[in-house]
Amino acid sequence: MTLRLRTVLASIAVLVLAACQGGGGGSNPVPPSTENGAPITMGNASAEFAAVPQTAPNGVRAYIHLPLRNVGQLEKLVEQQSTPNAPLYHHWLTPQQFRDSYGPTISDLRAAAAALQSYGFKTTITTQGIFADAPQATVERTFGIHLRSHTESVRQQQMSSLVADRAPILPAALSKLSAQVAAFSSVPAHRVFSRRIALKATPENRYSPVGPYWFDDLKQAYEYPAYQVARGQGKTIAIVMASDFLDSDMAAYFGHEHLAVPHIVRRPVGGGAPPFDPNSGVSAEVTIDVQESGGSAPGATIMVYLIPDLFDSSDIAGFVAVDEDNLADVVSYSAGQCELDYTAAYNLGIDMTGILQVYHQVFLQGNSQGITFMNSSGDSGALGCPNSFPFPTGVIAGVSSPASDPNITGVGGTNLITSFIPGSLRSTYVSENAFFDRWAPGQGGGEIVPGPLPGQIWASGGGKSVIFGKPSYQLLVDTHASTRAVPDVSLQMGGCPIGTATPASVCEKSRSAGVFVFGGQLAGFIGTSLSSPEFAGLQAIQDEVLGSRAGNVNFLLYSLARAESTGNGPIFHNDIPGNNGYPSTRGYNFVVGNGTVRGSQYAFRPFGPFAGDPQTPSNP
């Protein structure tokens, strides 16, 4: 055994030991006392923190965010909690400990709530701010704005929001607290990152080297641990999305592979999500998210945070609810929006980037509690932004938010090719590619704006952030960027959407897809919406093996990328050919990040046993 191999194996032992000795955020996190509205003690003061409201607002709802205290110390704490071999590795905070040291003071929260109440709002105090409900006239008078209704179609689902005609003006009582109104912005709704494709045949068995793949096909291809060894038992995966789903689809999907349906819990936020609609791409999205994550980790509980729409105010409310509940170990979100859309140049001179800092502080809280956040990196390759606002004529380089936040793991995608033996379900890894597909003239994805734009491509989203600086974990490898680089990791996403100009011969030989049950029918889908929930399931398996949550797992990901092996071959499939506007090269790149993972290596079970053929005891 070489010295390097002994060192790596010793490091694994330390990782496991440190995780087992870690602090809060174990296998069964205790629901916060706010869940039943009971008083919580903060230092020597007491306050009643309520769970994020499930019901719809009576009037207009705004989230008033107060800045965290000691943010620099908090960033360093999260780094210590998430860095292998650090003294505080996997020693997580409880929500109460977070409030005591880093949340706004109870006196500030009470002062903000009292001020809002004096203006005519009904308030709900949470760790970082206030949910405030009032009639529209009260909101407009309080913040010196005029609100207009704005409706968008996000994949055939109509979403409405109230948009302000200017930046809100804070009353003195809130201004002196450095509060921010995280609502009413003109930033478009987030776009979901999945697209339906036609299935050329009913996939009763694995009939092609490029799928479409069921969840257990992927688990064999990516060498997951055997089902008997680890399957996410005792862990909870949260999905945040703006549509309900069909229980009958879940029964049909998992039943097709002879597997019991995982435990699924609905958690409404702000009145919950619209009902299932078979014509809605957002309904398809939540269906994909639940099925892919549940198939990846069939022993985990899937908790679906049902939000009303995909505008920032609802998205933030969903993530705040995740933090306050503190029930989820891993969170997957499969939507996003171009970072540039938050800058003044894209908002008539109004700088909206403060909203991204609200997201950042919400993710920081979750990380400190051990929660891992994952987000699809997008499906428009490196050309992820419109070239102007409000009337774009093409696309330019840019990355998607919130995948670009340093406290989220951005998950890109590839086309997977596996073994194919007619009549057999075997699906072992052969190769991958990450080449883009060009839209045919007049076609387009709508991943950037509701309609197609000239120059749009279909590919794994990636590139350089213009908002966030380079995080310390990206110093471990050469990311070819001085700022936050995206993605961090990848898995199968597929390609060749309907309307592509890519020749059919290429699509049939080297572009993959996933198969799901949607609206009672087998349906093919592609997009990084497939890769993020799958990686969330694998993360739940790693959490089970280590006996602890993982927090900001990017610190571990880049440590593993630097080490390259855990003792039984490489951790990542790297040197994957491709191009998304940037070339895919050996080592870290803007197409696939550090590469795609070998599941057992990533889950610290490098010597097996591994998931075998689908529908067998090791891979049901």
Explain what the structure shows.
By secondary structure, the chain is an alpha/beta fold. Helices cover 27% and strands 22% of the residues. It has 15 helices and 31 strands. Strands 11, 12, 13, 14, 16, 20, 21, 26 and 30 form a 9-stranded mixed β-sheet that branches. It has a 4-stranded antiparallel β-sheet with strand order 4-5-3-8. Strands 9-15-19 form a 3-stranded antiparallel β-sheet.
Domain count: the total is 2
Structural class: alpha/beta
- CATH level-four homologous superfamily name of the largest domain: Peptidase S8/S53 domain
What is the highest CATH level, the class of the largest domain? Alpha Beta
User: How would you sum up the global shape?
Assistant: globular
By CATH, the architecture of the largest domain is named 3-Layer(aba) Sandwich
Termini Cα gap: 35 Å
Classify the helix fraction into a percent range.
25-40%
Low-confidence stretches: 1-10, 12-47
Instruction: Characterize the largest beta sheet: strand count, sense, and whether it forms a barrel.
Output: 9 strands, mixed
Mean pLDDT: 90
Roughly what fraction of the amino acids lie in strands? 15-25%
Number of contiguous helices: 15
Q: Tell me the CATH topology of the largest domain.
A: Rossmann fold
Q: Would you report the number of β strands? A: 31
Radius of gyration: 23 Å
Salient structural properties:
620 residues; alpha/beta; Rossmann fold; 2 domains; 9-stranded mixed β-sheet; 4-stranded antiparallel β-sheet; 15 helices; 27% helix
